Amino acid sequence: MMQEFEQSEQISPKIRSKVLIDALPYIQRYNGKIVVVKYGGNAMTNEALKEAVMSDLVLLSLVGIRVVLVHGGGPEISDMLKRLGIESKFIGGLRYTDAETADVVRMVLAGKVNKELVAHLTRHQGPAIGMSGIDGALLQAKKKESKPDLGMVGEITAVNTKPILTALENGYIPVIATVACGPDGQSYNVNADTAASAIAAALGAENLILMTDIAGLLRDKDDPSTLIPSVSVSEVQSLKREGIISGGMIPKIDCCVDAIRRGVKKAVIIDGRVPHSILIEICSNEGVGTQFLSVY
Questions:
Q1: Is this structure's pTM higher than 0.85?
Q2: Catalytic residue positions?
């Protein structure tokens, strides 16, 4: 797939113009609307895919779609912890975050990954501004209660949309690192999917896009041809009982369902390994993953 992308031929002006005309109804649909993109997975570590994502976001912004980029940075955090001689520990898919790890999480997400993404967007002529959940108390959280204890992992209690809307109104793409703040000033590590869902709901977003390293929700997890392109939120529980939604897909799909129930028009899990998957999702009926709707 990547080889085809890298070796793609130049398209003719005639085909290019048809592509633009075909995209017009979708651009009109989303013009002025907010789209929240959770960025992660292979699309964040593969340079060719990263360039495709950045160009997609800038293009969408330039045609009047109000893009909000939310990111994690698990591999970068793990790499920095390893370099510092600190063990990475996961419980139920979440990173155990003691005080030392919390410092590294904040440093890597807000200080390194966030600013690198802003620089990438700027290089593509996309005005971007970086912020973390701590800035302007954007993401407010409390300690996530669980057994065993997860340390300084947070559960979002409120989203202050003012910093995000101020950036959007001034033509910027907000790039948000998912570190949150507690009422006592304590910072918390927050799951990026959860944060993106909460932000999309608070903004009344038209679409929440979660980028992953899988094709979407499959009836048979080992067979990409069994992709389920559309799911009503009312079907989710039965799909869980059947075992079709299981393992690491459960929290991602729960985030989509929560966003829909809180007013987001559509939530979709897309295959971030496909070049320009964001554009395909926004500018076509087919998309490249599984969409979740209140009804369909």
A1: yes
A2: 38, 41, 74, 193, 252
